Amino acid sequence: MKDESRKKINLRRFIHQLWFLLKPSHRKIWWLIFWVILVEIFSLIGPYILKIIIDLIIDFKIENFQIILFWIISMFISNQITSLFTYIKDRKSLEIIADSDFYLANNAQSKMVNLSLAYHERENTGNKIIKIQRGINRIRELLLSLFWEIVPIFFQVIFTMMVLYWVSFWFGLTITFFVPIFIWITLKVNKKVHPDRVKIYKKGEEAYGLMTQSIININTIKSFVQEKTEVNKFKKVNKIVKKSALKVFGTTMKYNLLRTLIINLGRTTILFFGIYLIWQGAVTIGSLVFVVSISEKALISLFRISRLYDQIMESSEPLARLYELSLEESEIKNPKFGIKPKFLVGEIEFKKVSYAYSDNKKKALKEINLKIKSNQMTALVGPSGGGKTTLARMIFRHYDPQKGQVLLDGENLNKYDLYEFRKHISIVPQDVEVFSTTIKENIAYSRPKATFEEVKKVAKIANAEEFINDLDEGYETEVGERGIKLSGGQRQRIGIARAILANPKILIFDEATSNLDSYSEKLIQDAMQKIRKKRTIIVIAHRLSTIRKADQIFVLENGQVVEKGTHNQLTQERCGLYRKLIDLQKLNQVE
Ligand SMILES: Nc1ncnc2c1ncn2[C@@H]1O[C@H](COP(=O)(O)OP(=O)(O)OP(=O)(O)O)[C@@H](O)[C@H]1O
Ligand SMILES: [Mg+2]
User: Which residues face 471 on adjacent strands?
Assistant: First the structure.
């Protein structure tokens, strides 16, 4: 959070953004305001009837008894109507809050899921999700105080003022004089304690972070005997929170004395004018009681909006974040009437494709030309950072080329319906992502309707069956958050089984065997042999044993194809990069 943006808020922008985000509730909000106005008008009627009754009693005549009785019943009815309207108003505002909670979270989540991978790599997603969730909570608090306090009090003060002017100019003037002073002090105290409130908020967040860190890294903490340091670190930050909180309370309480003084001065002035006006015969005793009771209520209500300024401050940043997120669009556009292929031939061609990551000046791919033939196994090899993963992801349209074209079966990839063509392609990534659920569901993620038999079959092909059966609960074993209960090699085999289950025409392995021991690797290679029939297979690999079986090999270096051919052709090249890589590997194996 930038400190600059925290110091100043742009109220107009804030309202604009809030109004924009609450779009689905606009109609309901107008209705709410209507009900608020009704409630505030009706709550003036009760005290007014009381005024009539008091005036009738002071001037008591026995024949007025029926009229008095009529007014008492009217007062009862009017109070009941007010409480009914209040009920409706509160229901409406709770509805709006529940609605907005629902759609703000939904919109944010669906935005997150639908935005392109490039976006997620650019933005730090992990943090962001927590911040969005916190933002939604902040907005809920803001709406609560808006609908329950600020809007009703606003109308209450306006109507009270109007009525006071109507009863007597002097009453009106008194309240017009004291209310602005009161509001001014309120804003002042809020501004004064604001830095400390920010401290509470920021340091609180930091303390929260430290707490999480110390739990996540507990292994390291214990191995290096750093328990005390961690405890002290946390305590230190937490202490600042406490200190700031005490300071905020202290200052607010001090200013409260001043605010109470203003209210008391207002009260006294009204009484003073009241008695004077009664003496002059300008108003009745009933009117004075009426004036005192409604102005009292208005002044006390004002006390309640004291945190308005801070609430706007606190929610302005997360609000802006949600607003920006809602305007964000995926860079990968799905064409309106995209091709929905029933089946693919499985031929891929790169034509002069260039790509640079947005935060990286160096191009990851430079004018790549290559053709991946259908029903063949193609290997991508080369030094780290050469662009292999980038190239593979382009086939899936995780990224679009900035220059050139990627063709699938002779058609530009961006002509296909995004979700339809992707059904025919599976990637086993370098780091397989595992959900916090059972092994079975993790494998079946690519095809949730798959039967248990099918899941077992692919697990067998991926050579995962053996270790799964060794687990206590077999396929029903929960793998824990991010799959921490699985070893790297086990996770990879889950990823492979998942990809095979999708039964894709094009299968991409991004170093899927890098975490395996030689024995498991061999089994997986056998699996690849089994499933390579009638499929286009792209393997990114460092190991010779995997590459050797490929029908064609592309060697990528610095985002360019520097060599291509079969294993035998490439090993003939005496000074070639491939030959060099292979020789190095052989050397390693000897050692
Ligand atoms: N998300 C990213 N943001 C910015 N730059 C990236 C990103 N991913 C990769 N790069 C850069 O793009 C270039 C190609 O990376 P890529 O991951 O395609 O290489 P690779 O050949 O798969 O390497 P390795 O064998 O280590 O997996 C590298 O210079 C890398 O620094
Ligand atoms: Mg890679």
Answer: none
pLDDT of residue 5: 43
d(CA 341, CA 337): 12
Return all residues near 254 (Cβ < 8 A) that are at least 6 apart.
Answer: none
Residue bearing tokens 């001037």: 59
Considering the domain architecture, whether residues 320 and 438 belong to the same structural domain is answered as: no
pLDDT at site 4: 42
Torsion of CA 542, 546, 548, 553, to 10 degrees: -60
Query: Is the C-beta atom of 121 inside 6 A of ligand 1?
Result: yes
372: CA distance to ligand 2 center in Å?
18
Kindly give the number of the ligand 1 atom that is closest to the alpha carbon of 388.
Answer: 21
Confidence at residue 548, expressed as pLDDT on a 0 to 100 scale: 82
User: Residue 126: what pLDDT?
Assistant: 54
Say if ligand 1 is within 6 A of residue 389 CB. yes
pLDDT for residue 173: 92
Positions of the chain with pLDDT under 70: 1-9, 123-131, 306-307, 481-484, 512-516, 587-591
Q: Give Cα 29 to chain centroid, integer Å.
A: 24
Q: Are residues 439 and 317 in the same domain?
A: no
CB < 8 Å & 24+ apart, contacts of 472-475: 474/439, 475/438, 475/439, 475/440
Query: 379 - beta bridge partners?
Result: 539, 553
Instruction: Indicate which CATH number applies to the domain containing 274.
Output: 1.20.1560.10
134: domain range?
3-327
Question: Ligand 1 in contact with 390 (CB < 6 A)?
Answer: yes
Distance CA 45, CA 317 (A): 42
Residues 6+ apart with CB under 8 A from 560: 366, 367, 368, 387
Kindly state whether residue 179 falls inside one of the protein's structural domains. yes
- Indicate the top mutation candidate among 360, 546, 557 to test ligand 1's pocket, ranked by most ligand atoms within 8 A of CB: 360
Q: Round to whole Å and give the CA distance between 367 and 363.
A: 10
Q: Which residues contact 193 (CB under 8 A, 6 or more apart)?
A: 247, 248, 251, 252, 310
| CATH code, domain with 438 | 3.40.50.300
Residue with the smallest CA separation from ligand 1 atom 18 is: 387
**pTM metric for this prediction:** 0.73
Nearest atom (ligand 1) to Cα of 358: 4
3-state secondary structure 114-146: HCCHHHHHHCCHHHHHHHHHHHHHHHHHHHHHH
- Report the alpha-carbon angle 548-550-552, nearest 5: 115
